[in-house]
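Narrative summary of target 7.
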Amino acid sequence: MDHRSQAPDTPTVDIIPDTAAALGPAPDEAATSSWAVPFEIPIGDRLITCMACGARRDWLLIRHRDAIHVRCRCTHQWCEPALPVSWYAANHGPIVGVYRTGEEVNRLEGFDGTFAGTYL
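Modeled conformation, tokenized:
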């Protein structure tokens, strides 16, 4: 008789889907997608700057329908009308994760306040 304990059956959640179909719509077709951007983003003659903490880089860009929202590591978030959806669509990298909620994206990408102030 085998007396080893076995872990109960627990469902696993894959953060990175293994098929194109599991990814869902392409980023330019999705209603909402996000992109972590570590560099500065110029708009005209200014840089995107967080009004709450003064950060000038390390953003989570969130495309929701026809608008781009910028989220800072300090958790300040705003809609940036000067950042065109066409720029986002042309420049974002490949999909690296599919998340169920905005809160999950913020936590797993480090934009939940955990790293606030570590990059100024």
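The first strand starts at residue 32 and ends at 37.
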